[in-house]
Design a protein that fits this description.
This protein is of the alpha+beta class. 15% of the residues lie in helices and 27% in strands. A hairpin with a 3-residue loop joins β17 and β18. The relative contact order is 0.19.
Length: 435
């Protein structure tokens, strides 16, 4: 069992009373407009400095009275320029800032409809206060702009459509910037309030945001990861995801099944270099860290054994623990296989509610049987990014996804006017623009 991962997770849960991260009063922004409110959830794990910057500006009243000064239907709406409060400065709209910049936090989230991202100039580290909301999928922007949030209510998307449909300027000699709204009142951000997610109702079940899958292919369920040197057959109807690697314990790949009783079955993969450590020592070195959690009654080890699986030396652990979320107690069961080859440890963990554990156990066993490694994985320079679609579809009541046994709880997972399609060169920008 990958006890190190479990210990980090359980300690975190202990301090938040075993409430998953997405229920621990996560912050949301309420953008008030003439058409109604747009609610933005944040992605602090992907863009912590950007989220902090936006919240600080919103709470200071910085955005109040600014306008969506650049509106391009079927692409995006852009706002956040303090100069847009003054119609006398209209020719300078799009060049204003908060007076400081933040470094880029480009991440793997795709620029799909409803995504909120930072505008910038040619300098990747020039983002300041201006942001844009994607009206129509614009994935050519991926990994070039910092995604930090997403709209989460149906009203938000209705308001987005209303603003995107506003008449805009297309006359270069009018004295107004191109794509600026004619009706300035309708494009005004009246206020942005920061609230706790627990105060918000009627959020959509959007699941995890869609991400770029790198260094891998997924063809009819056959998943291959050439960076880490392994492959497997994904269960039919399950979704494959490669989470952003925010810490060593973050899983490299997760496969998520259909939700049942507010919980999604998960199969997670973590790849670690051996660095000369044997499987026996790997288990022994980390077991000592887990003992306080077992002694406290937070986890029960049901069985452990060493065996040979498909030619690998393996350590197999089954365990279960009870965790509270949203006034419910979830009894979670885990089966974890640590496989050893010449160079690496491959930890494969199946997580589900105990009452549903056996119903999806066959899917896990099939994944395990199809699992294969290459003993000499390709280097990053040899890898081609094919970026297949990976839509998880979990909702805000999900408990989490797993890697090692404990990380099952550590990672909270929650899921018009017609115009010619914009060219790849048409991008959201702030400051001096090349568009």
């Amino acid at each position: 069992m990958n006890f190190k991962i479990f210990v980090i997770t359980i300690v975190f849960l202990f301090f938040v009373s075993f409430i998953p991260l997405n229920f621990a009063d996560s912050k949301v922004a309420v953008v008030e407009t003439k058409f109604g409110n747009m609610l933005i959830e944040f992605f602090p794990a992907d863009a912590p400095k950007t989220v902090e910057n936006f919240i600080n500006l919103a709470e200071s009243g910085f955005y109040n009275g600014t306008k969506f000064h650049r509106i391009i239907p079927n692409f995006m709406i852009q706002g956040g320029d303090p100069l847009s409060k003054d119609v006398n400065l209209v020719q300078q709209w799009g060049t204003g800032s908060s007076g400081k910049t933040i470094d880029a936090e480009f991440n793997s989230i795709k620029h799909k409809r409803g995504i909120v991202s930072m505008a910038r100039s040619m300098d990747p580290n020039s983002a300041s206060s201006q942001f844009f909301i994607v009206h129509k999928d614009s994935t050519f922007l991926d990994k070039q702009y910092t995604v930090f949030g997403r709209l989460i209510t149906q009203e938000s998307y209705d308001v987005l459509d209303s603003i995107a449909s506003l008449e805009t300027n297309h006359n270069a000699t009018s004295g107004m910037p191109l794509d600026a709204p004619i009706d300035l009142n309708s494009a005004t951000i009246q206020n942005i309030k920061i609230k706790n997610l627990s105060e918000i109702s009627n959020t959509l079940n959007l699941g995890e945001p869609e991400r770029i899958i790198s260094y891998s292919t997924l063809n009819e369920g056959n998943y291959t990861n050439t960076l880490f040197g392994f492959s497997f057959q994904a269960p039919q109807g399950w979704s494959v995801q490669e989470p952003q690697k925010t810490q060593p314990e973050t899983p490299d790949v997760v496969v998520i099944g259909q939700q049942n009783d507010e919980f999604n079955p998960v199969i997670a993969f973590l790849v670690e270099d051996k660095n000369g450590t044997s499987l026996e020592q790997h288990v022994k070195d980390t077991r000592i860290n887990l003992q306080p959690i077992i002694d406290a009654g937070r986890l029960e080890i049901l069985s452990e054994e060493d065996k040979n699986i498909e030619g690998f030396n393996a350590h197999v652990t089954e365990a279960k623990g009870g965790f509270a979320a949203r006034d419910k107690i979830f009894i979670i069961k885990y089966k974890e296989i640590v496989l050893e080859n010449d160079n690496k440890f491959y930890t494969i963990t199946y997580t589900n509610q105990e009452k549903n554990f056996d119903s999806d156990l066959t899917a896990f066993n099939n994944v395990l049987e199809s699992f294969a490694t290459s003993f000499k994985p390709k280097t990053e320079s040899q890898v081609t990014d094919l970026s297949p679609k990976a839509d998880i579809g979990m909702n805000n009541t999900s408990i989490g996804i797993a890697v090692g046994i404990g990380a099952a709880i550590a990672i909270g997972v929650v899921v018009v006017v017609k115009r010619k399609k914009k060219s790849i060169n048409q991008k959201p920008d702030s400051g001096k623009s090349d568009s």
